[in-house]
Design a protein that fits this description.
The chain has three helices and no strands. It has helices at residues 8-15, 24-46, 56-89.
Length: 90
């Protein structure tokens, strides 16, 4: 199952169990994605404001980079599970 489609409660419940995945790598990627999402939120709250007009272009560029990073980290949640599950079975 795709770890990124689980609810937060399901993810944490399985993380706390004896299941091989998600594990530390997936949890770290998920927390990283959440951190980057918070950065995006700040950028979104900044854009469109007169006070920050001088840096709006830079903020938009940073938000685009952050979104790409967030998507990569989200993909790594599942990639970690896909890589570790067969190893744990061996």
């Amino acid at each position: 199952m795709d770890m990124t489609t689980k609810s937060c409660r399901e993810f944490v419940t399985v993380l706390a169990s004896n299941e091989p995945a998600p594990g530390g790598g997936g949890a770290a990627a998920l927390v990283g994605a959440a951190g980057v999402a918070l950065g995006n939120m700040v950028g979104d709250l900044t854009t469109g404001k007169k006070k920050y007009a001088a840096v709006e272009e830079e903020i938009l560029a940073l938000n685009a980079r952050a979104e790409a990073l967030r998507k990569r980290l989200e993909a790594l949640v599942q990639a970690d599970a896909d890589a570790f599950t067969p190893l744990a079975a061996a």
